[in-house]
Specification:
globular, 15 strands, 6 helices, eleven-stranded mixed sheet, Thiol Ester Dehydrase, Chain A, alpha+beta, 21% helix, MaoC-like_dom, 2 domains
């Protein structure tokens, strides 16, 4: 039978982060994922907090809530799950690999939400163990939103076969580049390229997004901590990248859609990036690229659902 942690109010994320980090050393990945969900009911959207988030992420002010903001609301539940002593993997050194958001219909300011989060599908990865964290938002009995975040726990081990590596087409040449773990890899990538929107990212972007999201992971705010974790400097939150990319095509999004993002390389700040968006039959193909070298940082696809 599934155990539940019921949150009456949003937790203090700095305190929960500190607890999860402090207990990371004792988490060795042994044992299965707990049959545990974290729940918070009757969540109201604060219009002023939403407005601050929209400003940082490039969304327009409107009655419809961006799908990425709903990830903001479930993120405290995710961190509470990671901090629970039954969760076997350490927060320190974890990497957000992929994030898929499914908006079944627009959520409006004024609607109250019941939120839940649980972890599932621990499986091998060539650099450790990857786990899916599933989050859902209901209005009454109606499922209105789902999130699937895949995290990599580097250096952990689990029984099972490694998945086959897909062939990724980048274009006319194959390149070698460093992935978010700092290791060299040869990749080909089918992400769109060409002219696009150029964004100059300021050095304080991580702190600004932390203020509106609650994600106070120091690799996004402090270059010393980022370097200690293997990055050359401070890096942007993956969820800022996904939000900013969706915000750029906000007026072209259908009412119900699935937005899949793969975080390929760390987005360093300060820096300059380019969003390339191409409308294909039935979907938008997106790529966030380092502007000068055109390296793919984030690969995305947005498709309508019925």
């Amino acid at each position: 039978m599934t155990d539940s942690i019921e949150l009456e109010a949003p937790p203090s994320l700095p305190k929960v982060f500190a607890r999860a980090v402090a207990s990371s050393r004792g988490r060795n990945g042994k044992g299965p994922l707990p049959d545990l969900q974290v729940v918070r009911r009757g969540v109201a959207i604060d219009p002023s907090q939403l407005a601050d988030y929209d400003h940082v992420c490039g969304f327009t002010l409107r009655d419809e809530v961006p799908s990425t903001y709903l990830h903001n609301l479930v993120f405290p539940l995710q961190v509470s799950l990671f901090a629970d002593k039954r969760y076997p993997y350490p927060l320190v050194g974890s990497v957000h690999l992929d994030n898929t958001l499914t908006q079944h219909r627009p959520v409006l300011i004024g609607e109250q939400l019941d939120l839940s989060t649980h972890a599932t599908n621990a499986r091998p990865h060539k650099r450790g163990v990857q786990v899916d964290v599933v989050s859902r938002a209901h209005v009454g009995d109606e499922l209105v939103w789902e999130g699937l975040a895949t995290y990599l726990y580097r250096g952990q081990r689990i029984d099972g076969n490694l998945p086959e590596r897909p062939q990724e087409l980048r274009g006319p040449r194959e390149v070698s580049e460093r992935d978010t773990s700092g290791e060299l890899r040869g990749v080909q990538d089918e992400a769109p390229d060409g002219p696009g929107m150029v964004w100059r990212l300021p050095g304080n972007l991580g702190r600004r997004f932390a203020a509106v999201s609650g994600d106070v992971n120091p690799i996004h705010m402090n270059s010393v901590t980022a370097k200690a974790m293997g990055f050359p400097t401070t890096i942007v939150h993956g969820m800022w990248s996904q939000a900013r990319m969706l915000g750029a095509i906000e007026n072209r999004l259908p009412a119900a859609y699935r937005a899949e993002m793969s975080f390929r390389k760390a987005v360093l700040i300060p820096g300059t990036v380019r969003l390339v968006a191409r409308e294909r039959p039935g979907a938008w193909q997106l790529a966030l690229r380092e502007n000068r070298r055109s390296t793919v940082l984030v690969r995305g696809e947005v498709s309508p659902i019925s």
